[in-house]
Structure formats: structure tokens, C-alpha cells
Amino acid sequence: MSDATRISLTRFLIEQQREHGQINANLRLLIEVVARACKRISIAVNKGALGNILGSADTENVQGEIQKKLDVVSNEILLEDNEWGGYLASLASEEMDDPHSIPQHFPKGEYLLVFDPLDGSSNIDVNISVGTIFSVLRAPEGVEDPDESAFLQPGVKQVAAGYAIYGSSTMLVLTFGQGVYAFTLDRVEGSFKLTGSNLRIPEETSEFAINMSNMRHWQAPMKQYIEELLAGKTGPRGRDFNMRWVASMVADVHRILTRGGIFIYPRDMKDPSKPGKLRLMYEANPMSFIVEQAGGAATTGLERILDLQPEKLHQRVPVFLGSKAEVERVSQYHRDAQA
Ligand code: P6P
Q1: What is the pLDDT confidence band of residue 67, given thresholds at 50, 70 and 90?
Q2: 207-338 shares the fold of 3-196
Q3: CA 78 – CA 228 distance, rounded (Å)
Q4: Which residues, including other chains, have CB under 8 Å from residue 299's CB and lie 6 or more apart?
Q5: What's the start-to-end Cα distance of the chain, in Å?
Q6: Residue 114 carries which DSSP code?
């Protein structure tokens, strides 16, 4: 198919609205604006050292992490582009302690947007792919200025989720609950073009993604599962496995969406107070929605991520997601250890 005949994100969204009744005008506008913000972030990221925005911002976020300049810039782009549109009641971000209220002089709408503006930002200075992850929820009715509690909805309540990956090409991956769609940024036209429909994750895989340096801190079922993969043909799995770890969730998940695999960031005893590293509301939930819509699975090792009732906006959660057969196997090991 030639680039000229590929349909744009705008046409895709209009057809989803008109023909499938899947999304309304406000949700369509929300996604269009988020996509436009991701284009702006892509331009900033792709400038690299020429943009004079690499390196640390010398500030700390709510996670206690040193913010990169691009973390702050990306967050500001998403706030600035989304607060005027009249479709949001509030926004929340990994980079902000509390939700961002819509300024009084702008209309409010029916949705909540929660995002990680630049995931994997530790990779920026070494030119490895990073991304933006976002999740859309319905705002509670009759609440003038939603606070943190309005966001604390289980992942099954998401009306849309997506990510942008700023890699060798800039792509936008979306779901509204009826399959997963991928768009590639046409930099000449400046528009996202549909390049993947109904993406599917193979049920079986021989590729796993985990940060092996944490192995000594893992719980027993985690160690058992990985040791079996490392044993390869000579072990109980009877075949060799390959490993990848980009340390950028968006890049690892995108690879899994493209060719299968299992992504794991388990609970570890390095910091027993933390149930994992990744955040539920703006990393695990949106990625789990996408992965399940592509035929994969996503658990905490014990339960389905999308069923979790959030207690805090920035809470962390163990994450096992990707090819269903592997997620189910490693989750069974964890459930057996609990029995
Ligand atoms: P580690 C990036 O900081 C991130 O939140 C995810 O994108 C990534 O999967 C993970 O942390 C990497 O963590 O401990 O391997 O650096």
C-alpha cells in the first residue's frame, strides 16, 4: 500500500465515530490533541543535543526521581495542549504530585487523562527509544474539580489507552477496546498514517524481557521461572529462550506487540516497601489494556492488572505482560507459591 493511500489518524477516528459508534466527538478530539502533543514531543526528542534540552532538570518528581529536562518539557506540552479543549475534567501525570485542574477560564468535559509524559527518559541521553503512555477514564458526574480519588478507577474502566514511541520512526498505538491500531508519523505531511490494524500478540514466545541484575532480590517463583528459561533445551522447557531489556517500557512492549514476548518487572526485595517499580495508573493499566486487546495477558503474578482497585494515584505494581501462555505459566508459579 502506498503512503498516499494510507488513511490518516483523523480519518480513522472519524470512521470509528461515524461507522462503529465506538467513540464520541469529544473522545475523538481528545485523541487528536494527544497525538498532536506527541508530535511536538517527538520533535523535541529528535533534536537531541541540538535542542539544548538533554540532561537533568535538577528537579525531583513525586517518585523521588531526578527529572530530565525533556520529562518537564513533555509534561508541559501535554498539559498545555489538553487543558483548553473542553473534553477533560482533569489531568494527572507521573511528573506531578497531584492532578492538574482545568483552569477556570476553560470549559470542563467528561474525561480524565492520566499519563507518563516521557517513559524511559533515562535513555534519552544515550539515544535509545523513549515514549509517552496515556490512559483515558470517564470523570465522575457532577464533580466540579475532580481530585485524586476520581482517578482511582480499575483499569477495566479505561475508555481508551495508547502510547507513542519515539524510535527510528515515531509511532502511535491506540485501543478503544475494539482491537489495537498502529499509526506511523509521516514527517513530510506531519500526520499519523494507519500502518497496523488489529495487532495480535502470539500466544507462545521464546523471548523474555527482565532486568536480570535484580535476580538476587526476586521471590522464589520468579527465580524458578527465569532459571527454567535460562536452562533452555537442557531444562524443563525443552527449548532455548532469548532475552531483551531496553529499560524503556514503551520499547519493550512495542517489540512484544510486534513479535511476541513476555515483559516482567516483578516485586523484588531490593525495597520491600515497594510492590514493584512500575506505576499502575499510567504504565501498567494502559499497557495491560493494549496487550489484552491484542490477545495477550497482563497480571501482577497473582491477579489480572486491569481488575486492581487503585488506592493511590502513583502506586506501583508488579507487572507480567505479553504472550498469554508465558504470562499464565509464570503467574501459576506465583499462585502455587501462595497456596
Ligand atoms: P530499570 C523507565 O524508567 C521505567 O519506568 C520503564 O520504562 C522501564 O521498563 C523500567 O523503568 C526500567 O527499570 O530498573 O531496569 O532501570
Answers
A1: confident
A2: no
A3: 43
A4: 305, 320, 321, 327, 331
A5: 53
A6: E
CATH C-level class of 207-338? alpha beta
Q: Tell me the per-residue pLDDT of 239-296, one tens digit each, with 9 for 90 and over.
A: 999 999 999 999 999 999 999 999 999 998 888 888 899 999 999 999 999 999 999 9
**123 CA → ligand 1 middle, Å:** 9
**Residue 65 CA, closest ligand 1 atom number:** 3
- Tell me the C-alpha distance between 246 and 263, whole Å: 11
Q: Is the CB of 31 under 6 A from ligand 1?
A: no
This model's pTM is above 0.90: yes
- Report the SS3 class of residue 231: helix
For 3-196, give the CATH class.
alpha beta
Name which of 140-144, 302-306, 319-323, 335-339 the model is least confident about.
Answer: 140-144
Q: Give CA–CA dist 315/294, Å, rounded.
A: 25
Query: What is the band of 4 on the pLDDT scale with cuts at 50, 70, 90?
Result: low
The three-point CA angle 158-164-166 to 5° equals: 160
Sheet containing strand 88-93, edge to edge, reads 100-101, 88-93, 111-119, 130-138, 160-166, 170-175, 180-186, 191-196
Q: Is 211 in the pocket of ligand 1 (CB under 6 A)?
A: yes
By the 8 A CB rule, do 87 and 111 touch? yes
Q: How is 165-219 classified by DSSP, letter by letter?
A: EESSSEEEEEESSS-EEEEEEETTTTEEEEEESS----S--SEEE--GGGGGGB-
Query: Is any ligand 1 atom within 6 A of the Cβ of residue 131?
Result: no
In angstroms, rounded to a whole number, what is the distance separating the alpha carbons of residues 55 and 35?
25
How wide is the angle at C-alpha 151 spanned by C-alphas 307 and 199, nearest 5°?
55
Atom of ligand 1 nearest to the CA of 248: 7
Determine the Cα–Cα distance for residues 74 and 77; give it in Å rounded to an integer.
Answer: 5
> For the chain, what are the domain ranges?
3-196, 207-338
Q: 37 burial class (0-12, 13-18, 19+ CB within 10 angstroms)?
A: buried
